[in-house]
From TrEMBL:
This is GTP 3',8-cyclase. Pfam families: Mob_synth_C, Radical_SAM. GO terms for molecular function: 4 iron, 4 sulfur cluster binding; cyclic pyranopterin monophosphate synthase activity; GTP 3',8'-cyclase activity; GTP binding; metal ion binding. SUPFAM superfamilies: Radical SAM enzymes. Coiled coil: none annotated.
Length: 326
């Protein structure tokens, strides 16, 4: 069991399969020239499986594959199928653009739930945000997942100037589609030019939704990062991920493994320990994992004030989101 000094048990691992991506989302990737990790520094397929097995032996019960874009990794189908042999719930966060090529392997591996990112319902804005003209493909793939019986969560980063106009359209989408919309408060990472004034909080978004809809609060579970709501009679639900305005660190059970094999005990943590080098040297990886978890900070990687209005992005040391694995 991986328990930290605050009594939190860590049983949910997010593995980044690559730092590469076929989109260029402005809030995720530094606008400055992005340097990709060299192949030799990335975990090989076998190394991913060995490390995953070690985590499972330490009590991990759920594994999410992410990136970068996990589906751009050529070995994705094989990695997924082999992870499916472990006694874990498997899931995926994707920009959705390659989903149609992987439906069968997702089913075969027993994946039940997929998170698809979609920040706008407007084709032109989508192009501007992702720098790729792929709105239709993502939309079609989201519908494909629903038709194929997957539980679909749709992640939208709440971008100031955009979400205010679109939040009710997203909620309207849940009338006929059984999707679970999740609005994520904009978070600070290296190179994404975060400022507190760019954050649209859950409370602000909720007010906008309430102007148009009667809503009910749904029950949230212990480790849930999202605060869930529903318009009565609608097929789907919507939720807010309130990392900035009301963090959920007290119930955190998440560990991250970056594509270059570093363990991060927190999304915002600057301390990383190198599992890949240890594995390649034949050292005791379990001990390093335990050490990392034991050093976890109480909240927000110990890097900024829980009052996000006081957070200083210049003082936060971290990677860009694309290199962490969200
Ligand atoms: N490429 C995949 C995708 O886009 O879903 C997986 C990786 S992406 C880094 C994981 C999630 O992080 C996406 O839902 C994305 O919108 C979110 N994300 C990226 N940068 C963010 C930021 N600065 N604040 C909040 N969420 C962010
Ligand atoms: Fe790529 Fe996902 Fe980041 Fe967009 S949010 S650049 S799709 S990793």
């Amino acid at each position: 069991m991986l328990q930290d000094s605050f009594g939190r048990v860590h049983d949910y691992l997010r593995i980044s399969l690559t730092d590469h991506c076929n989109f260029r989302c402005t809030y995720c990737m530094p606008q400055e020239e992005m340097e990709w990790m060299p192949q030799s520094k990335l975990m090989s397929k076998e190394e991913i499986l060995t490390l995953a097995e070690t985590f499972v032996g330490l009590g991990v019960k759920k594994i999410r594959l992410t990136g970068g874009e996990p589906l751009v990794r050529k070995e994705f189908p094989e990695i997924l199928e082999r992870l499916a042999a472990f006694p874990v719930e498997l899931t995926l966060t994707t920009n959705g653009v390659l989903i149609h090529k992987h439906i069968e392997v997702l089913k075969k591996a027993g994946v039940r739930s997929v998170n698809v990112s979609l920040d706008t319902l407007n084709r032109e804005k989508f192009l501007k945000l992702t720098r790729r003209d792929q709105f239709d493909r993502v939309w079609e793939n989201m519908l494909l997942l629903l038709r194929e019986g997957f539980r679909v969560k749709v992640n939208a980063v709440a971008l100031h100037g955009l979400i205010e106009e679109e939040i009710c359209d997203f909620v309207a989408m849940t009338e006929r589609l059984p999707i679970h919309m999740r609005f994520i408060e904009f978070m600070p990472f290296a190179g994404n030019h975060w400022q507190s004034k760019k954050v649209v909080t859950a409370a602000q978004m909720l007010d906008l939704v309430k102007e148009k809809y009667e809503i009910v609060k749904l029950e949230d579970k212990k480790h849930d990062t999202a605060k869930k709501y529903k318009v009565p009679g609608f097929e789907g639900t919507f939720a807010f991920i309130t990392t900035m305005s009301e963090n959920f660190c007290a119930g955190c059970n998440r560990i991250r493994l970056t594509a270059d094999g570093k363990i991060k005990n927190c999304l915002f943590g600057k301390e990383e320990l190198d599992l890949l080098i240890a594995l390649r040297r034949g050292e005791n990886v379990e001990e390093i994992i335990r050490l990392s978890i034991s050093r976890k900070h109480k909240a927000l990687g110990g890097q900024f004030d829980p009052d996000y209005l006081k957070a200083n992005p210049e003082a936060i040391e971290n990677r860009s989101m694309i290199k962490i694995g969200g």
